[in-house]
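ok trying this again, last paste got cut off
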Amino acid sequence: MLIRPSTSLHRFRLFLLCAVAFTAPAGLYAQTGLPGVDEPVAVKIDDQPAAEQNEIDEGAAAKRGRITPFNGAALPEGEIPPLQSPEEARKADQKALEPSNGVNVLERMGAALPSLPKEKPFTGKADDAYGAFQRGYYLTAMELALPRAQLGDAAAQTLVAEIFSQGLGVARNTKDAAFWYGQAANAGDPGAMFKYALMLMEGRDVPRDKKRSEELMKKAADLGNSSAQFNYGQLLVADMPGEKGLKAALPYYEKSAEQGIADAQYALSQIYLNVDGIDENKRSMARGWLMRAAKAGFDTAQLDLAIWMVDGIGGERNLEEGFKWMLRAARGGNVVAQNKLSHLYINAIGTRPDPVEAAKWYVLSRRAGLKDLALEDFYLGLNDDQQKAALSAANKYRSS
């Protein structure tokens, strides 16, 4: 059975086990300076001692004049740059205080800035039905879309199917939804193809038809539907276990990952790192894709990213960041992360040792069914007060 994105992890990891038994890094800013830059410097004006300079009033300075900024051209022999009048000096100071609008590369090169391209006018016809749907006016959307759907409009058919499927403003009717998804799929709508392919694969509200399902899934994937791309990759891996299937699915995972599907991003990280024959440039991107999946909230990606950072897989070791990602996955309910977080607390990896926190996370993982003899021995070795504190913390965490 095909699983929608973000729920297919266990299946994908099983495929990987059969096959193999980015955010850019923040820039480093170096703070450099010259000796004595921050120290006060004594300068003499005319013949006055440096100690008396602070007593010079602005009027006296203006009377002596200031050298006007010079463009660098050679002056005739004997001439000196002109002096600014007090009023000119005041205006120059005022201008210097004005906020800068920034200087771009073209300005620094002395070239004129190109004019902005004209915005292309929208020549298409606004879809009132989808507009009503997006604003939450579901009955209006249905009234506008249904007549078009009955005339064969694929987009309208998909919208009607979605309204029936979710029961938005009307009674939920999955059979009617399946009918309209089928109509829209036959009319060429990629989103409807994906939804109808899932129904055909599962035999939900329509007769089960694996062959037709795979045909529609591939067609939707080739038309650019990101969810179909990921799921068609899953089909290829299921039909061809091992590296052959993973390599066949790779282009579809890549396209889906680029469109933001976290499951596909996770899949890329595993394939790039573990499958033989992968280009080294792609292999170096494995952790970056894993990071993107983790940031999207994929808890298993968060777990794996924590392990990679602690163990130095796919990049340099970073114990503190590894601990943070393990904590995030554990708080999200990942039982394996809760178990491993306990070990990190015990061994002070990326954090300070904390026996009560370690015991709390062990209790939570044990209650979820994950046994660990080493952690059980650790827990039994705690004193009564520590065990009570850990149990209390675990109980409060579960009820929160």
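PB: full thing came through this time. Confidence is low (pLDDT under 50) at residues 1-75, 95-113.
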